[in-house]
Structure formats: C-alpha cells, structure tokens
Amino acid sequence: MKIVVVEDEIAAYNNIERLVRKAKIESLSIIAWLKSIEEAEKWFMLNGEPDLLLLDIQLSDGLVFELFANLEVNCPIVFTTAFDQYAIKAFDYNALSYLLKPISQIQFDDMIKKVFQNSSNYKIDSSLRRIIKQLDTYNSKNILRERFLLKKGEKYFVVKTSHICYIYIDHSVILETLEGERFILGSTLDELVNQLDPLKFFRCNRQVIVHVDAVITVIPYFKNSLLLKLNTNTDFEIVVPKDKVRAFKLWMDR
C-alpha cells in the first residue's frame, strides 16, 4: 500500500513513519512526505493517486481542505489532527477515518485494516460519526465555547474567548487576540456565531465578528452605517450596515 503523508510537523511525521514501520501489515510504504498545500498540489499534478492519503488539517499555508478546491481525490482519506472541531468538514470530504493525535499503534493498525476492507467503496468509520454526534449535541444544547486550542508553527496555544479582539475573513477565518496574536480557525463565521456568547460577540457584517471589550469608538458613517474603531489597528474598516445598527446599539448599550 502506497501512502502519501501531508504533514508540516516533523515530530508528527516521525510518529507516522514509526507507525507504518511497526504496522502488522508489511506491505506499507510512504512514497511522499508533503509539508504544505502548495507542495501537495504540485505533487498531485505530477503523480497518480496513492492507495491512502494521510492529511494533517492545519498546515503552514492554510487548512488542508483547500487542497480539494481544484483537486478530485478518489483514494481513501484519513485526517490526522489534534482538533476534533473539523469532524463535520472531514465528513464533507468523505473521510474514511479521523484520528486524533497522538495516534497509537492500535488505532493506526485498525485504520489500515479498514482501508483494506473498504478500498473500493470506503465509508466513514464509527469514530467520526461519534465526533459528529457530539458536535451536534454541543450545538443543540447551546453550550457556549469558552476557549480555542489553536496551532501556530509547531506549538498549540489555548486562547480564551475573553481574550479575543475580533474574528474576520481574509482568505481564511482569522482570530486576533487582544494581545495582537493571530490564528487561523477551521470554522466559518456562521458556525462561530452559534458557539460564542451573544452578549460578548456581535457579527457586524458578513466578514467580521467583534468582542464587546474591543470596541472603543463608534462613528456615524456612510448611508446611516457605523464605523467601529477597536483597541487594535485593523487592516480594513469595520462597518456595521444600516440594517444592523439598531441591534448593534442595543448590544453595546447594556
């Protein structure tokens, strides 16, 4: 079985290499180690599909889901990540499995067995279904998110929602903290609005969600809209359109 690994962390790749080497099935081999979306796109342009694609989700140049924008993949896909928040998106790409790091040898061997068993018509395994069910339960109970576990470089950081300045779209969804740190998120703004405390966060427009403590000045703007100034410099104007002005004022004035 020929395996392609898309992973930007050396330690994580070394672990996968070890799992492959120690797997009970001997016919496994890693034919390519790709460290970015760009590198993966170039590889697939020049090579055929492998028997198995192992994908980390958060890479140095974005989320691995971007790889599928211009690429049709028909081989089994397994996501290997430290984040369970991407399970629903993994479902969209018909993942065979969704392995949370650190991956044990038993988990890896079980996944390989599933690949062999479902190579012609692979299905989503029960672990992914369980994660999706948990996420659905989470949202249905309106449990508000208190923190994010976010990756930057080869490290993971815990960001409390109280430390968020604003969240915005700039190719990816970006979270900026009150301290000016920026992180890429794997959720859409629509999903985040349902996870964040509505007393603390307001969606100004289609591109921006702000934290109440980040807003320092509100200025009347064109066509009865409002221009917001935050306690940090932004790369663009944050405008509350006319149809949201009343709701915004009620949200702020409490």
Detailed description of the structure:
The protein is of the alpha/beta class. The protein contains seven helices and 17 strands. The strands form five sheets. Strands 2-1-3-6-7 form a five-stranded parallel sheet. Strands 12-11-10-14-13 form a five-stranded antiparallel sheet, with no helix packed on it. A three-stranded antiparallel sheet has the order 15-16-17, with no helix packed on it. About 4% of the residues have low confidence.
Helix % is 25-40%
What's the N-to-C terminus distance?
61 Å
Number of strands: 17
Calculate the mean pLDDT score and round it. 84
Q: Over all CA atoms, what is the radius of gyration?
A: 21 Å
Question: What is the percentage of strand-forming residues?
Answer: 25-35%
Biggest β-sheet strands, sense, barrel = 5 strands, parallel
Strand order of the largest sheet: 2-1-3-6-7
Tally the helices: 7
Quick one: overall form? elongated
State the secondary-structure class: alpha/beta
Q: Please provide the ordered H/E string of secondary-structure elements.
A: EHEHEEEEHEHHEEEEEHEEEEEH
Stretches with pLDDT under 50, minimum 5 residues: 122-130
